[in-house]
Write a structure and sequence with these properties.
single chain; 279 residues; alpha/beta; Helicase, Ruva Protein, domain 3; Rossmann fold; 2 domains; two-stranded antiparallel sheet; elongated; binds glutamine
Length: 279
């Protein structure tokens, strides 16, 4: 079978399962052949070898069965960087770049910030910050030792292992010193939404998604641990889900009456991040 025929067939089969079937077929073919976009377009007319065909259809089969593309290829782009991902970690989402942007704005003039990324998963947030803040030191914490294995691979890839210390444990418990900024994309999917997840999200670690009844259980526990873990003038930058702002602000005010809270919207206009400054 020629490359272009295989692409067409694969894309027809995928079309009933997912949007963007032609693009997904193309990504899988590029992965099977080890080609970039231009390379693939130069080879559309050639015959696939038997091995190439077998490799391509096996990737395609995984996609047909619902596995997300980033787990199949081992690649996910985040903040302009390429991260290794597999089923051990949540796939970094574009909306989470908002946390990185806001953290960079806050810390750009700081001579040597210390940051904790709680629930680091693949390490995407911590590594994006390390890359853009050369004088920063970071702690990247996760309760999942499997996730930390993935984060370690990504730290090696970007040569930030000396500045990003990986710690296993529950939220802020393993953090050995107070920091300037706590940044966290914790699990925040509520119980009702968890029952109706998108099939691809179903494939991601529950541990990275499930935030209890209203989704805010982990965030509340984190906030309850935060006193004493922040340096003077420090703050928390937290990702949240649709409709969680009010409950979050109410909880923050109950815990820290003097706190300043600022809310940021993502590109889809959803209130996605909260910056909490403690006096
Ligand atoms: N944004 C993710 C989703 O919609 C949730 C990630 C999380 O819980 N931190 O699936």
């Amino acid at each position: 079978m020629r490359v272009k025929e295989a692409l067409k067939r694969a894309s027809q089969l995928l079309a009933t399962h997912c949007e963007e079937a032609p693009l997904q077929a193309e990504i899988l073919m590029r992965h099977a052949l080890g080609l970039d976009r231009a390379g693939l377009f130069g080879q559309l007319e050639r015959e696939l070898t038997a091995e190439e065909e077998a490799a391509f259809w096996s990737l395609h089969q995984r996609r047909l069965h619902g596995e997300p593309i980033p787990y199949i290829t081992g690649h996910q782009e985040f903040f302009g960087l390429d991260f290794y991902v597999d089923r051990r970690v949540l796939i970094p989402r574009p909306e989470t770049e908002l946390l990185v942007e806001k953290a960079l704005e806050l810390l750009k003039d700081h001579p040597g910030p210390v940051i904790a990324d709680v629930g680091t998963g693949s390490g995407a947030i911590a590594i994006a910050l390390a890359q853009n803040l050369p004088s920063a030191r970071l702690y990247a914490i996760d309760i999942s030792s499997e996730a930390l294995e993935v984060a370690a691979l990504n730290c090696q890839r970007y040569e930030v292992s000396s500045r990003v210390q990986l710690l296993q444990g529950d939220l802020l418990e393993p953090l050995p010193e107070a920091v300037d900024l706590i940044v966290a994309n914790l699990p925040y999917v509520g119980a009702a939404e968890l029952k109706a997840l998108d099939p691809q999200v179903e494939r991601e670690p529950r541990l990275a998604l499930a935030g209890g009844g209203d989704g805010l259980d982990m965030i509340r526990r984190l906030l309850a641990q935060a006193a004493g873990k922040l340096r003077r003038g420090g703050g928390l930058l937290l990702e949240m889900g649709l409709g969680q702002r009010e409950a979050l602000i109410r909880f923050v005010r109950g815990l820290f009456p003097e706190a300043q809270v600022e809310i940021f919207r993502d590109l889809g206009q959803i209130e996605r991040a909260a910056l909490i400054g403690l006096p």
